Amino acid sequence: MVTLAQVARHAGVSPSTVSYVISGKRSISQDTRLRVERSIAELGYHPHAGARALASNRSNVIALMIPLRTDMFVPVMMEIAIAITTTARRFGHDVLLLTSEEGPSAVKRVAASGLADAMILMDVELEDERIPLLRQTGAAAALIGLPADPAGLTCVDLDFEATGALAADHLADLGHREVALIGAAESVYRRHTGFAERTLAGFRQQAAARGLGFLHRPCGAGHEAASGTLSRILQERPNTTGFVVQNEAALPHLLSQLRQSGRAVPEDVSVVAVCPDEVALHSAPQLTSVSIPAQEMGRRAVELLMAQAGGEDTSGLTLLRPALTVRESSGPAPRTD
Amino acid sequence: MVTLAQVARHAGVSPSTVSYVISGKRSISQDTRLRVERSIAELGYHPHAGARALASNRSNVIALMIPLRTDMFVPVMMEIAIAITTTARRFGHDVLLLTSEEGPSAVKRVAASGLADAMILMDVELEDERIPLLRQTGAAAALIGLPADPAGLTCVDLDFEATGALAADHLADLGHREVALIGAAESVYRRHTGFAERTLAGFRQQAAARGLGFLHRPCGAGHEAASGTLSRILQERPNTTGFVVQNEAALPHLLSQLRQSGRAVPEDVSVVAVCPDEVALHSAPQLTSVSIPAQEMGRRAVELLMAQAGGEDTSGLTLLRPALTVRESSGPAPRTD
DNA sequence: AGACGTCGTCGAAGCGCTTCACCAGCGGCG
DNA sequence: CGCCGCTGGTGAAGCGCTTCGACGACGTCT
After folding, report:
1. In this prediction, what percent of chain B has a pLDDT beyond 90?
2. How confident is the model at residue B337 (pLDDT cuts 50, 70, 90)?
3. Average pLDDT of span A163-181
4. What is the DSSP string of B61-80?
5. CB burial of residue A27 (10 Å; 0-12, 13-18, 19+)
């Protein structure tokens, strides 16, 4: 293993000089810097992470707590995780992966062991058990999602209320009078995951404001669940012509079920999905959707954490503006004469 | 921050004793051990990861390199990653997440910096760039997937050749005479990812052995790609009645396309999927499938790494036996009279 | 011309842990 | 009864790095 001391000897300078060349915390003459850099390259030196963490009290690692849930749409989580990782690397940081299996105490362990300088929590619930621990340890953190009381916390999320409202507006603009929200799995609502409830709230409110008839149903993944949910909605409110779907896993089944039941999209019913663009584009017909900016959420979370490390106060909500893209699945409400 | 020295003082023993209590590397009297453990709990002590890594030259971290590909089925990757993380925790290890964005040099960086003791590579290609670096640095590693030359490497994977053969056999047993393999995206084959080619090889060979007419087509995700691939196959070989699908993303589209084209599953055509059980169960009809044991792959990889750390020679292939579960999507070939 | 900053570099302390060498006490054995 | 070999404990060195204070060698200002 190559150590800093060896680099120093090779370059004919003292170890501290090498350290300063690397960190840039003191000015170094052009000449020495080049010599040191050459030695580093030549010897293939990489600083020892543990030693650095010990001496500097910073690990340059961000911990990422991802949920184990089976009721969340996995590709979105993964996309966020990957965005976090690549952004972190741009800041010279690495990412430690934690699952919620370890329980909330993982927060304490990571904070106390110096394994990570900061953490990012995904799948935040309204009353999340990890949050008191976060407050108590004073660990640097960013949340993806909103808890009930975000005071003093750094939160990033899509503005799901606006998302719901946007979808309702789009359908209202197209002349639909009866609309339904097909949401996430029931378990998601049961544990009060913010995004689902906020979408619902925004949708409900705007639907009311626009005078739309309104229905909301959770929906599991899988064909059974999807077709069951759909047929119950149509039975209860046969005149429903506008659907908002916030459930990627159910989308293909919902679409094929609509087709089978003889309802053409978008001639008879309109569908607005809340999903990543990729999913919307891979469906047939391509879906009008409010996209989930997974990458941006991950990126922003890391950037906020870095700002926080730099002493800035980043607490507060960073709500990303939703954007609706009109594609082939939504159109004017059918004439009802 | 609580240090080991503080624990030692609190318990009235020397620091080394506390260390030995924690590591269990020496026998400690019942009495002292309890005293120390109580102090640890009382003070809420967590060893400093960096200090430990520096002194012991082991970080208790496993690096996990996941691909950035968009052409792989993400939930499977995620399931593997989660299984790796939870298994690693059982061994007192954490997981560092690396994306392939950083390039093969990440292998060197991680090995040289002592960030991780070992690594797990996913999405291994036949001629993977990371492998020479692995050999050169002598870093402990386990691969999920097989490279062209696995000599001296520790590899875990589903036995995809047997998977292909199993699917072919099942269709042959049911009396199908013309079969087709709808595979992963073309890009997957182009970069010579082992699993796709091995499935193909196993399928082709067994199809030949059983005297089946045989066709293979890669298939992208999305509706367009799926229905295009399917109709081309049916055009080229209209008598194809058995399909093997190794492409989770295309499955729902394929099924709805078959339905639309008037082919009933399983009365007219049989479908065997290579996918996680969850996907098979959520389809309509539920799919006969060879399941992808994602969790077991992750678990085994970690276990092998731990054995390796214990001095065992774990090099060689660990190929998991595929298992085919008959569900509703496969049945006897239609009579051809 | 002398005092004073500034710049570039060095030496050394010390981060919190592991581990090696050592030692005291004690029971078993010849 | 004396010696040996355990067992359970201690002390100290040192892992590789960062960082603080110190210090020449300059240039600048009065």
Report:
1. 91
2. low
3. 98
4. EEEEEE---SSS-HHHHHHH
5. exposed
CB burial of B116-133 (b: ≥16 within 10 Å; e: otherwise) equals: bbbbbbbbbbbebebbeb
A175's tokens: 């002349």
| B37 CB burial (10 A radius; 0-12, 13-18, 19+) | middle
Output the pLDDT for position A337: 63
> From the CA of B21, how many Å to the C1' of D1?
37
B337 touches chain A (CB under 8 A): no
Of B45, B96, B114, the CB nearest to A95: B96
Residues B29-53: pLDDT tens digits?
A: 999 999 999 999 999 999 999 999 9
Chain C bases closer than 7 angstroms to a protein Cβ:
7-12, 14-21
Between chain A and chain B, the number of residue pairs with CB atoms below 8 A apart is: 152
8 Å CB contact between B277 and B325: yes
pLDDT single digits (tens) B113-130: 999 999 999 989 899 999
Amino acid at B131: I
pLDDT of residue B109: 96
Instruction: Provide the total of helices (H) and of strands (E) in chain A, helices listed first.
Output: 14, 12
Q: Which H or E run contains B167?
A: helix B160-173
Distance of CA B247 to the CA centre of its chain: 15
φ, ψ of residue A61 to 5 degrees: the values are: -130, 140
Q: What is the pTM of this model?
A: 0.94
Q: Across the interface, do A94 and B108 touch by the CB < 8 Å criterion?
A: no
Tokens representing A238 are 């046969």
Q: Which residues pair with B19 in a beta bridge?
A: none
Shortest CB distance from A96 goes to which of B70, B78, B95? B95
Q: By the CB < 8 Å criterion, does B46 face chain A?
A: yes
Does residue B16 approach strand D to less than 7 Å at its CB? Answer: yes
CA dihedral B329, B330, B336, B337 (to 10 degrees): -90
Q: What tokens were used for A97?
A: 């992966």
